[in-house]
Design a protein that fits this description.
alpha/beta, 3-stranded mixed sheet, 16 helices
Length: 394
């Protein structure tokens, strides 16, 4: 059963486009590009912008420093290994006041054995020491970022979490790093973690899209008590990607009552943010992506067009204008006569049955491929058709 709240909780949005998203193949950005995109993402109303992994390269350090000095409403975040040099470098780049310094922890026996080659006690000690160091340097917000937590046992996770909170961690990121969980499993994991720590400790979701369940898992985590969701524009990130920021904002906007959770982030700037991301990394919009897809608000099917021409409510739940998009009707071989009558009426031309039938046979019924006409192109063709001599019509 969904967790009930008297009023919808405001979910904290943590954007990791510039870290998890940027580190995926083909997505690398130069520091000035990262800064521009960080400011665009901040303008959406997200709470935290993860700027990068400062110890990974001088360029990354520079980007983090530039972003941390430029953000005005959002906080900056960094990801760091549990090493003293990483912590010092992160503080130098991101400061201490508005900086969410994340200490990466090993969250599964699989990673302890095959990736790290160390035992549970050693892994826990290094993390606790790194958190304590960050606190001693004056960092106000320290996050325990648990990699591969979804495949770790409670016997590993619980002491790691409780000792890290005691050392000063105020946020716990529970990562489904391989995207292996279904919502019931991930929700149950978040519920257990919630029961291990005090209510003032923030739990953050970090879900991957390997099974296509990143958003569903994140929402299950929110329902189980998580107060923050990590997400990326267009869902970019390692392998299949991460929870999509735009989809998350849309769901929290449209389904706040059902989810008892909401957001104050702006939907209107999302398309412009995607265009900025697309320009920076050369990411084309796919045809069928929610909200950002080429066809997300487009239709060519005759039955759908006939309904939309009567009322957009017929086939439109998400309003394109709220996301900086426009409703588009295209004419292709699946279109019908309703769109032809609509265009003729707009042109103040007589929509008699004979003309409609001629246009239908010429431009729709005998259209053998998947190409489509925009309404402006159809208007031009109709003008040609109407002015051409009867014997010379196509």
């Amino acid at each position: 059963m969904p967790t009930q709240h008297s009023t919808p909780r405001r979910i904290r949005l943590f954007d990791t486009t510039l870290r998890d998203g940027e580190q995926a193949p083909g997505n690398a950005m130069r520091p000035p590009q990262k800064l521009d995109l960080a400011l665009t993402i901040e303008a959406l109303g997200v709470d935290v912008v993860e700027a990068g992994f400062p110890s990974s390269s001088p360029s990354e350090f520079q980007a983090v420093k530039m972003i941390s000095e430029s953000l005005t409403s959002a906080h900056v975040a960094t990801l760091n290994r549990a090493l003293p040099q990483d912590i010092h470098l992160a503080v130098e780049a991101g400061g201490t006041e508005r900086h969410h310094l994340q200490v990466m922890a090993t969250g599964s026996e699989i990673h302890l054995k095959h990736k790290r080659g160390i035992g549970q006690a050693e892994a826990q000690r290094e993390v606790v020491a790194a958190i304590a160091l960050a606190r001693s340097l004056g960092v106000r917000h320290v996050t325990l970022a648990i990699e591969d937590a979804s495949r770790g046992s409670d016997a590993l996770l619980r002491p790691l979490i409780t000792e890290s909170v005691a050392a000063g961690a105020d946020t716990l990121t529970i990562a489904d790093t391989t995207g292996c969980m279904v919502p019931a499993q991930y929700g149950a994991l978040i519920g257990r973690v919630r029961s291990w720590v005090a209510a003032d400790v923030t739990i953050s979701t970090h879900c991957h899209e390997d099974l296509g369940l990143a958003l569903a898992n994140a929402l299950a985590g929110v329902d189980a008590g998580a107060q923050e969701v990590q997400a990326t524009l267009a869902g970019i990130g390692e392998r299949a990607g991460n929870t999509s920021l735009e989809e998350l904002i849309a769901v929290l906007t449209y389904k706040a009552e059902e989810l008892h959770s909401t957001t104050t982030a702006r939907t209107e700037g999302l398309w412009a943010a995607f265009e900025a991301l697309s320009e920076a990394i050369g990411l084309p919009a796919p045809r069928n992506k929610a909200l950002f897809g080429v066809n997300a608000f487009a239709t060519q099917a005759g039955i759908h067009q006939a309904g939309l021409l009567r009322s957009h409510l017929s086939y439109e739940y998400v309003e394109p204008s709220r996301f900086g998009r426009e409703r588009t009707m295209l004419v292709g071989r699946h279109s019908g006569r309703a769109v032809l009558r609509h265009v003729l009426t707009e042109m103040r031309a007589p929509a008699d049955d004979q003309l409609v039938e001629e246009l239908y046979e010429t431009y729709i019924a005998n259209r053998g491929d998947g190409t489509c006409l925009r309404l402006s192109e159809l208007r031009a063709l109709i003008d040609e058709h109407r002015t051409a001599p009867a014997g010379g019509r196509p």
